[in-house]
Amino acid sequence: MKAFLKRKKINISWKSYGIDAMSAMAQGLFASLLIGTIIKTLGEQAGKALVDTASLGWLKQLCDWFVKIGVFAQSVAGPAMAVSIAVALQAPPLVIFSAAAVGYAANSEGGAGGPLAVLLIAIIAVEFGKMVSKETKIDILVTPFVTVVIGGLLSIWTAPHIGWAASKVGDLTMWATEQQPFIMGVVVSVVIGMALTLPISSAAICAALGLVGLAGGAAVAGCCAQMVGFAVLSYKENKVGGLVSQGIGTSMLQMGNIAKKPVIWLPPIIASAITGPIATCYFKLEMNGPAISSGMGTCGFVGQIGVITGWAGNAGWFDWLGLVLISFVLPAVLCIALGSVFRKAGIIKDGDLKLEE
Q: Is residue 276 located within the same domain as residue 316?
């Protein structure tokens, strides 16, 4: 059996399913639902800002097209996630192509918890598809049949329950944050922020739980604290390149250094524990866009776009102040200050945060 699984490139491990597959799923979600939301929002907001004149008719038409394109991208989130998972699991072409149908079924049947249903069901369907791939002379029929039928049946039988469970966990988290904004502000901010830096996907976690509203705002705060925090904390070693790659890219780049010296993680974690409750208790920062945006932080400014999405032009100066402070200013100031203390105390030394080139 071990030889068979090895030949089929089936590696039953946390890394394959909890890291590789989940990270790939987040990329698929980004390339469909998230980018679609950004394009749609851009079209909607630009269209509202235009003066209704004949000379600008072509521009308003372009905005309408952007909205339509955004909807197209959003509608294929399920297939995009499943195909991404299949690629991450090194599936052969027929399995990858068949995964699109599985993703559509799981996401549709999973409701609000669709992304989690897609993750679990696509993994099983893809692995079974890999098992039968190229084992018969009618592979063109057998492989898609097995992949789609197994994925389809699991979607019908289990996706609604998976979606319900994920939705309830998300609802409980959001309810708890409403009831105890300080405590949950700290917990959600720290946990989701750490997930962003770890080699797992904070975006996928937020999407699977449907984390929006006040809890989503806390998640944004935690992710920003990690990304902006590590960007400024390591500026001495990594200069502008590191500032950009971590600040609007990902703080996951520091995982190698964290593994060598975990204490360097403390400043961003402390910063997230501070900014989280400020976001929930004082600024009432809420995620108004898709749940995946809650776990993106400042990556491509997706987290900020998600917050702005629901303002619909009704935001005041206080809302903008809160977004800027929580997303950029406070994480930077806190991590610069904490970094200075840690360096003076010899806890963090020169080179500890140096990124590999």
A: yes
CA distance 210 to 188: 13
Please choose, from the candidates 116, 113, 220, 132, the residue with its C-alpha nearest in 3D space to the C-alpha of residue 171. 113
What is the C-alpha to C-alpha distance for residues 233 and 263, in angstroms, rounded to an integer?
Answer: 13
On whether both 148 and 208 belong to a single domain, the answer is no
The encoded tokens of residue 183 equal 């405590």
- CA dist 242 and 159 (Å) reads 41
Q: What is the pTM of this model?
A: 0.80
Helix, strand or coil, per DSSP, at residue 224: helix
Alpha carbon 294 to its chain's center: 7
Residue 93 vs residues 107, 129, 146, 240, 300: alpha-carbon distances, Å: 21, 10, 14, 40, 31
The domain containing residue 13 runs over which residues?
A: 2-163
Task: Quote helix, strand, coil % in the chain, to nearest 5.
Answer: 80, 0, 20
Q: Can you name the residues that pair with 213 across neighbouring β-strands? A: 287
| pLDDT < 50 regions, the chain | none
Other CB atoms within 10 A of residue 68 CB: 12
Residues 146 and 217 placed together within one structural domain of the fold: no
**Whole-number pLDDT of residue 140:** 95
pLDDT at 312: 65
Domain boundary among 163, 198, 219: 163
Residues 208, 64 share a domain: no
**Of the residues 163, 190, 219, the one at which a domain ends:** 163
Say if residue 60 is in the same domain as residue 156: yes
Q: How many domains is the chain partitioned into structurally?
A: 2
Q: Report the largest interatomic distance among the alpha carbons of the chain, rounded to a whole angstrom.
A: 70
- Tell me what pLDDT residue 207 has: 87
